[in-house]
Design brief:
Blueprint lengths: L3 H5 L1 H18 L8 H17 L2 E9 L3 H20 L3 H20 L12 E10 L7 E7 L5 E3 H5 L2 H28 L10 H10 L3 H6 L4 E6 L3 H20 L7 E8 L7 H13 L6 E10 L5 E7 L4 E2 L2 H13 L5 E4 L6 H7 L3 E7 L20 H19 L3
Parallel strand pairs: 3-6, 3-7, 7-11, 8-10
Antiparallel strand pairs: 1-2, 2-6, 4-5, 8-9, 8-11
Length: 408
């Protein structure tokens, strides 16, 4: 089917997205993972989707919202213990660093729920809305976003996104240095020793203390007193799919064999927990695997020149689906919208959870990975969105749907 008419109305749909995003921010409250504000936003969007969809359902799931970032507190505490241990038992310092790095690998790099059980449990929600085709379902496309938000990143707000990244890198360099001097100390002192070092080992330990303020500052990497509005990250992602559903409804378009849906997954900012819960729940029973189903996970649609198909996700450890990636990229090129291939080098989009759960998915972003001042700060507001970016991404999304419906 030709959906040119929908693409021609892209500016109006961008206006609709911005108006609805503004309303949610003004009326639903702060949307931390598992909060009343997150549920209010899900209910609001569910009510809108009921007009445009054949089925709408909300699924609760349990999670531990504080665990995803608070592992940093545990890690830093262990590292500080390792620094103290260096001056008495260098081998113990190495062991403690190993424990801290294992925690980081499992809890952050792989997003596993290693320490989640320590923290209070909350209920978050996923939302699924689908529009059935006229005939037999032969294929399915789902547009994903997450309605929740994060606490403000302190360094990004006070200085810049570059400072946030630099702080993280310096802290990691310090951890590596601590391991290095611990090994060197044992070599210089003839093996495993107990007691205060002297000479060069003492000097190395004193020099390494310069990293302690950076480690301590990691306790305040985020500001729990400030909850961002999340206009761009990620109500823009939520409304990309909703706008497509609205446009199909308003124009009275019914596809012949393609089912179209919106999947909004909660608690992405708590470690893609909603997407993981959805993939685990439905993947185990084979739901949405009856026909080819592709999922586009939109996240932070703010800068059109950085519209990107992320071929790798979850700290570059998870591959995106090849067909879904090429379909979106080729759709953008065919209508002359700037788009490139890229990856998510630090962090993740919900696409990673879908792919790990056996679904075909890809993350679509439109932000500079050299983080701007709006990313995870109080500047991510409804008056700081990019209409042209939303319009262009909407046009590519519609073209992707058209090409998928036509069997590409």
């Amino acid at each position: 089917m030709d959906l040119q008419k929908l693409r021609d109305n892209s500016d109006a749909q961008a206006d609709y997205m911005m108006e609805e995003i503004t309303t949610i921010i003004k009326t639903c409250g702060k949307r931390l993972p598992g909060s009343d504000g997150e549920k209010n936003a899900v209910d609001y969007m569910a009510n809108a989707l009921k007009e445009y969809s054949d089925e709408v359902k909300i699924e609760p799931f349990e999670m531990h919202p504080k665990a995803f970032f608070n592992w940093i507190h545990i890690m830093v505490t262990i590292i500080l213990m390792a620094m103290v241990s260096y001056f008495f038992i260098p081998l113990l310092a190495i062991i403690l660093v190993g424990v801290a790095m294992l925690l980081m690998l499992l809890q952050f790099v792989l997003y596993l729920e290693i320490v989640d059980w320590i923290y209070p449990k909350r209920t978050s929600h996923n939302l699924m809305a689908v529009k059935h085709p006229k005939g037999e379902i032969k294929r399915r496309i789902l547009f994903n976003g997450h309605p929740d938000v994060a606490h403000e990143w302190t360094m990004s707000y006070l200085i810049s996104g570059d400072a946030f990244v630099a702080h993280f890198i310096i802290s990691m360099v310090g951890i590596i240095a601590l391991v290095g001097i611990s090994i060197a100390s044992m070599v210089l002192q003839g093996g495993v020793t107990v007691g205060m070092p002297t000479g060069v080992p003492m000097i190395m330990g004193l020099v390494c203390l310069i990293f302690v303020p950076f480690w301590i500052a990691m306790y305040r990497m985020w500001n729990t007193s400030v909850i961002v509005d999340g206009a761009n990250d990620n109500l823009t992602g939520c409304y990309m799919g909703i706008a497509v559903m609205k446009a199909l409804h308003d124009e009275g378009i019914e596809l012949e064999n393609t089912e179209v849906g919106v999947l909004l997954t909660g608690s992405e900012e708590a470690g893609i927990r909603g997407a993981r819960a959805w993939a685990k729940r439905h993947g185990a029973s084979g739901d949405y695997k009856d026909v080819e189903t592709i999922i586009y996970a939109y996240d932070t649609l703010r800068e059109g020149k950085f519209l990107c198909v992320n071929k790798k996700d979850l700290n570059n450890t998870v591959n995106a689906d090849k067909h879904a990636s090429e379909l979106f990229y080729n759709a953008a090129k065919s209508i002359d919208v700037t788009c490139s291939y890229g990856s998510v080098p630090l962090g993740a989009t919900d696409s990673a959870a879908f792919n790990k759960g056996g679904y075909q998915a890809v993350g679509i972003t439109a932000l500079d990975h050299k983080l701007r001042n709006y990313y995870h700060t109080r500047y991510d507001t409804y008056d700081n969105m990019d209409k042209q970016c939303l319009s262009d991404c909407y046009k590519v999304t519609v073209k992707t749907l058209e090409d998928f419906d036509n069997g590409k």
